[in-house]
Amino acid sequence: MNMTYIRLFLLLFAVSLLAACEKEDEADTPLPDLGGETWAKGPLDDWLHENFVVPFNIEVKYRFDRYEVALNKVLAPVREDKVIPVMETIRKTWIEPYEKEAGDAFIKRLAPKQFVLIGSAEYNSNGTITLGTAEGGRKVVLFVVNDFDPKLESEVKQMLHTIHHEFAHILHQTIMYPEEFKRITPGYTASWNDFSLDDARSRGFITEYARSNPDDDFVEMVSIMLIEGEDGFDEIVEGLPAPAQESLRQKEQVVVRYFKEAWNIDFYRLQERSQDAIEAL
Q1: CATH (domain of 100)
Q2: What is the pTM of this model?
Q3: What domain range includes position 276?
Q4: Is beta strand 114-117 parallel, antiparallel or unpaired with respect to 59-61?
Protein backbone atom coordinates (compact mmCIF):
# COMPACT_ATOMS: atom_id res chain seq x y z
CA MET A 1 0.00 0.00 0.00
CA ASN A 2 1.55 3.34 -1.03
CA MET A 3 1.55 6.49 1.12
CA THR A 4 -1.40 8.06 -0.74
CA TYR A 5 -3.65 5.12 0.09
CA ILE A 6 -2.42 5.10 3.71
CA ARG A 7 -3.21 8.81 4.13
CA LEU A 8 -6.65 8.32 2.53
CA PHE A 9 -7.37 5.36 4.80
CA LEU A 10 -6.37 7.28 7.94
CA LEU A 11 -8.47 10.26 6.88
CA LEU A 12 -11.58 8.10 6.34
CA PHE A 13 -10.97 6.34 9.65
CA ALA A 14 -10.73 9.67 11.48
CA VAL A 15 -13.95 10.92 9.85
CA SER A 16 -15.71 7.69 10.89
CA LEU A 17 -14.57 8.11 14.49
CA LEU A 18 -15.73 11.72 14.50
CA ALA A 19 -19.17 10.76 13.16
CA ALA A 20 -19.48 7.99 15.72
CA CYS A 21 -18.63 10.39 18.55
CA GLU A 22 -21.16 12.92 17.28
CA LYS A 23 -23.90 10.26 17.13
CA GLU A 24 -23.06 9.13 20.63
CA ASP A 25 -23.23 12.71 21.88
CA GLU A 26 -26.61 13.19 20.19
CA ALA A 27 -27.94 9.99 21.73
CA ASP A 28 -26.89 11.19 25.17
CA THR A 29 -28.77 14.46 24.74
CA PRO A 30 -32.34 14.32 26.18
CA LEU A 31 -34.99 14.99 23.55
CA PRO A 32 -37.78 17.40 24.52
CA ASP A 33 -40.94 15.75 25.89
CA LEU A 34 -39.44 12.26 25.86
CA GLY A 35 -38.27 12.16 29.48
CA GLY A 36 -34.91 12.59 31.14
CA GLU A 37 -35.02 16.39 31.24
CA THR A 38 -34.80 18.55 34.31
CA TRP A 39 -37.50 21.19 34.66
CA ALA A 40 -38.08 24.33 36.66
CA LYS A 41 -41.48 24.41 38.33
CA GLY A 42 -43.98 26.82 36.83
CA PRO A 43 -47.53 28.06 37.50
CA LEU A 44 -49.03 24.76 36.30
CA ASP A 45 -46.96 22.79 38.81
CA ASP A 46 -48.02 25.20 41.56
CA TRP A 47 -51.69 24.74 40.63
CA LEU A 48 -51.41 20.94 40.70
CA HIS A 49 -49.61 21.06 44.03
CA GLU A 50 -52.26 23.30 45.58
CA ASN A 51 -55.27 21.40 44.19
CA PHE A 52 -54.12 17.78 44.31
CA VAL A 53 -50.93 17.23 46.32
CA VAL A 54 -51.90 19.29 49.36
CA PRO A 55 -55.57 18.25 49.79
CA PHE A 56 -55.42 14.65 48.47
CA ASN A 57 -51.74 13.65 48.33
CA ILE A 58 -52.20 12.92 44.61
CA GLU A 59 -49.29 13.55 42.24
CA VAL A 60 -50.13 14.49 38.66
CA LYS A 61 -47.44 13.72 36.07
CA TYR A 62 -47.97 15.48 32.77
CA ARG A 63 -44.40 15.74 31.46
CA PHE A 64 -43.72 12.70 29.33
CA ASP A 65 -41.87 9.90 31.12
CA ARG A 66 -41.24 6.89 28.90
CA TYR A 67 -40.92 4.59 31.90
CA GLU A 68 -44.43 5.32 33.16
CA VAL A 69 -46.02 3.60 30.13
CA ALA A 70 -45.50 0.57 27.88
CA LEU A 71 -42.17 0.80 26.09
CA ASN A 72 -43.48 -0.94 22.96
CA LYS A 73 -46.23 1.61 22.26
CA VAL A 74 -46.11 4.81 20.22
CA LEU A 75 -47.54 7.55 22.43
CA ALA A 76 -47.72 11.35 22.36
CA PRO A 77 -46.99 13.73 25.25
CA VAL A 78 -49.89 15.67 26.73
CA ARG A 79 -50.44 19.30 25.77
CA GLU A 80 -49.97 21.54 28.80
CA ASP A 81 -53.12 23.55 28.03
CA LYS A 82 -55.15 20.36 28.54
CA VAL A 83 -53.86 19.58 32.04
CA ILE A 84 -55.95 21.99 34.13
CA PRO A 85 -59.24 21.39 32.23
CA VAL A 86 -58.80 17.62 32.65
CA MET A 87 -57.81 17.73 36.32
CA GLU A 88 -60.46 20.33 37.20
CA THR A 89 -63.09 18.10 35.63
CA ILE A 90 -61.77 15.10 37.58
CA ARG A 91 -61.91 17.06 40.83
CA LYS A 92 -65.45 18.37 40.26
CA THR A 93 -67.08 15.26 38.78
CA TRP A 94 -65.24 12.41 40.51
CA ILE A 95 -63.57 13.57 43.74
CA GLU A 96 -66.20 16.00 45.02
CA PRO A 97 -69.23 13.67 44.66
CA TYR A 98 -67.38 10.98 46.62
CA GLU A 99 -66.24 13.54 49.20
CA LYS A 100 -69.78 14.79 49.75
CA GLU A 101 -71.21 11.30 50.05
CA ALA A 102 -68.41 9.37 51.79
CA GLY A 103 -66.41 12.09 53.56
CA ASP A 104 -62.93 13.56 53.11
CA ALA A 105 -61.08 10.55 54.51
CA PHE A 106 -62.53 8.19 51.88
CA ILE A 107 -60.80 9.79 48.91
CA LYS A 108 -57.61 10.54 50.85
CA ARG A 109 -57.33 6.88 51.88
CA LEU A 110 -58.38 5.12 48.69
CA ALA A 111 -57.67 7.44 45.76
CA PRO A 112 -54.69 6.48 43.58
CA LYS A 113 -51.64 8.48 44.60
CA GLN A 114 -50.57 9.30 41.08
CA PHE A 115 -52.26 10.31 37.84
CA VAL A 116 -50.17 10.05 34.67
CA LEU A 117 -51.50 11.98 31.67
CA ILE A 118 -50.77 10.84 28.10
CA GLY A 119 -51.79 12.81 25.04
CA SER A 120 -52.76 9.98 22.67
CA ALA A 121 -54.51 6.63 22.88
CA GLU A 122 -52.72 3.33 23.38
CA TYR A 123 -53.51 1.04 20.44
CA ASN A 124 -53.50 -2.72 20.98
CA SER A 125 -52.73 -5.58 18.59
CA ASN A 126 -56.28 -6.95 18.84
CA GLY A 127 -57.76 -3.75 17.42
CA THR A 128 -58.87 -2.29 20.76
CA ILE A 129 -57.82 1.02 22.32
CA THR A 130 -56.73 1.48 25.93
CA LEU A 131 -58.15 4.66 27.46
CA GLY A 132 -56.85 4.11 30.98
CA THR A 133 -55.03 1.71 33.26
CA ALA A 134 -54.62 1.29 37.02
CA GLU A 135 -51.65 -0.30 38.70
CA GLY A 136 -52.14 -1.85 42.10
CA GLY A 137 -54.47 0.91 43.20
CA ARG A 138 -51.58 3.38 43.30
CA LYS A 139 -51.37 4.85 39.80
CA VAL A 140 -53.92 5.67 37.10
CA VAL A 141 -52.77 6.39 33.54
CA LEU A 142 -55.20 8.42 31.42
CA PHE A 143 -54.77 8.39 27.65
CA VAL A 144 -56.27 10.58 24.87
CA VAL A 145 -55.96 13.69 27.05
CA ASN A 146 -55.15 15.88 24.04
CA ASP A 147 -58.65 15.28 22.66
CA PHE A 148 -60.42 16.32 25.85
CA ASP A 149 -62.97 19.15 25.69
CA PRO A 150 -64.81 19.91 28.96
CA LYS A 151 -67.64 21.54 27.00
CA LEU A 152 -68.56 18.23 25.35
CA GLU A 153 -70.60 15.92 27.57
CA SER A 154 -69.46 12.91 25.54
CA GLU A 155 -65.79 13.74 26.27
CA VAL A 156 -66.46 14.24 29.98
CA LYS A 157 -68.36 10.96 30.21
CA GLN A 158 -65.67 9.07 28.31
CA MET A 159 -63.00 10.25 30.73
CA LEU A 160 -65.19 9.60 33.77
CA HIS A 161 -65.99 6.14 32.43
CA THR A 162 -62.29 5.35 32.60
CA ILE A 163 -61.78 6.88 36.07
CA HIS A 164 -64.86 5.28 37.64
CA HIS A 165 -63.82 1.95 36.10
CA GLU A 166 -60.30 2.11 37.51
CA PHE A 167 -61.40 3.43 40.92
CA ALA A 168 -63.99 0.66 41.26
CA HIS A 169 -61.12 -1.81 40.69
CA ILE A 170 -59.32 -0.21 43.64
CA LEU A 171 -62.46 -0.58 45.76
CA HIS A 172 -63.06 -4.25 45.04
CA GLN A 173 -59.36 -5.05 45.40
CA THR A 174 -59.64 -3.57 48.90
CA ILE A 175 -62.97 -5.18 49.83
CA MET A 176 -64.23 -7.83 47.40
CA TYR A 177 -67.75 -7.61 45.95
CA PRO A 178 -70.18 -10.50 46.68
CA GLU A 179 -69.43 -13.78 44.90
CA GLU A 180 -73.03 -14.04 43.70
CA PHE A 181 -72.29 -11.31 41.15
CA LYS A 182 -70.09 -13.72 39.18
CA ARG A 183 -72.97 -16.19 38.76
CA ILE A 184 -75.56 -13.80 37.33
CA THR A 185 -74.25 -13.96 33.73
CA PRO A 186 -71.48 -16.58 33.50
CA GLY A 187 -70.90 -16.19 29.74
CA TYR A 188 -67.57 -14.38 29.93
CA THR A 189 -65.18 -14.54 26.99
CA ALA A 190 -61.65 -13.40 26.14
CA SER A 191 -62.90 -12.46 22.66
CA TRP A 192 -65.32 -9.85 24.01
CA ASN A 193 -64.16 -7.34 21.38
CA ASP A 194 -65.55 -9.54 18.60
CA PHE A 195 -69.11 -8.74 19.67
CA SER A 196 -71.19 -5.56 19.42
CA LEU A 197 -72.57 -3.46 22.25
CA ASP A 198 -76.11 -4.55 21.35
CA ASP A 199 -75.08 -8.19 21.51
CA ALA A 200 -73.40 -7.70 24.90
CA ARG A 201 -76.41 -5.95 26.37
CA SER A 202 -78.82 -8.55 25.03
CA ARG A 203 -76.85 -11.09 27.10
CA GLY A 204 -77.03 -9.01 30.30
CA PHE A 205 -73.68 -7.17 30.07
CA ILE A 206 -73.71 -3.39 30.29
CA THR A 207 -70.80 -2.98 27.80
CA GLU A 208 -68.76 -5.17 25.46
CA TYR A 209 -65.80 -5.09 27.86
CA ALA A 210 -68.01 -6.26 30.72
CA ARG A 211 -68.04 -9.67 29.02
CA SER A 212 -64.28 -10.10 29.48
CA ASN A 213 -64.35 -11.25 33.14
CA PRO A 214 -66.39 -10.78 36.36
CA ASP A 215 -64.13 -8.06 37.81
CA ASP A 216 -64.47 -5.87 34.72
CA ASP A 217 -68.18 -6.66 34.54
CA PHE A 218 -68.56 -5.33 38.08
CA VAL A 219 -66.56 -2.13 37.54
CA GLU A 220 -68.25 -1.45 34.20
CA MET A 221 -71.60 -1.62 35.98
CA VAL A 222 -70.38 0.89 38.58
CA SER A 223 -68.98 3.19 35.90
CA ILE A 224 -71.98 3.20 33.56
CA MET A 225 -74.43 3.63 36.43
CA LEU A 226 -72.50 6.69 37.64
CA ILE A 227 -71.89 8.42 34.31
CA GLU A 228 -75.40 7.79 32.94
CA GLY A 229 -77.30 8.39 36.18
CA GLU A 230 -80.40 6.54 37.31
CA ASP A 231 -82.58 7.76 34.43
CA GLY A 232 -79.94 6.98 31.80
CA PHE A 233 -79.27 3.52 33.21
CA ASP A 234 -83.02 2.78 33.38
CA GLU A 235 -83.39 3.83 29.74
CA ILE A 236 -80.63 1.38 28.71
CA VAL A 237 -82.11 -1.51 30.68
CA GLU A 238 -85.75 -0.97 29.70
CA GLY A 239 -84.90 -1.23 26.01
CA LEU A 240 -83.56 -4.79 26.36
CA PRO A 241 -85.17 -8.25 26.28
CA ALA A 242 -86.69 -9.41 29.58
CA PRO A 243 -83.89 -11.89 30.51
CA ALA A 244 -81.23 -9.21 29.97
CA GLN A 245 -83.25 -6.72 32.01
CA GLU A 246 -83.47 -9.19 34.88
CA SER A 247 -79.72 -9.87 34.80
CA LEU A 248 -78.81 -6.17 34.82
CA ARG A 249 -81.26 -5.42 37.62
CA GLN A 250 -79.71 -8.19 39.70
CA LYS A 251 -76.25 -6.73 39.06
CA GLU A 252 -77.53 -3.26 39.94
CA GLN A 253 -78.77 -4.49 43.32
CA VAL A 254 -75.46 -6.21 44.09
CA VAL A 255 -73.58 -2.99 43.29
CA VAL A 256 -75.90 -0.91 45.48
CA ARG A 257 -75.67 -3.40 48.36
CA TYR A 258 -71.88 -3.66 48.03
CA PHE A 259 -71.38 0.11 48.31
CA LYS A 260 -73.61 0.25 51.39
CA GLU A 261 -72.20 -2.78 53.19
CA ALA A 262 -68.52 -2.34 52.26
CA TRP A 263 -68.23 1.48 52.28
CA ASN A 264 -71.42 2.81 53.92
CA ILE A 265 -72.19 4.74 50.73
CA ASP A 266 -75.72 5.29 49.45
CA PHE A 267 -75.03 4.49 45.79
CA TYR A 268 -78.17 6.16 44.46
CA ARG A 269 -77.24 9.42 46.22
CA LEU A 270 -73.69 9.14 44.87
CA GLN A 271 -75.22 8.57 41.44
CA GLU A 272 -77.31 11.73 41.82
CA ARG A 273 -74.32 13.78 42.98
CA SER A 274 -72.28 12.56 40.01
CA GLN A 275 -75.00 13.56 37.58
CA ASP A 276 -75.37 16.98 39.18
CA ALA A 277 -71.63 17.53 38.84
CA ILE A 278 -71.63 16.57 35.15
CA GLU A 279 -74.58 18.85 34.43
CA ALA A 280 -72.97 21.72 36.36
CA LEU A 281 -70.07 21.80 33.87
Answers
A1: 3.40.390.70
A2: 0.81
A3: 175-281
A4: parallel
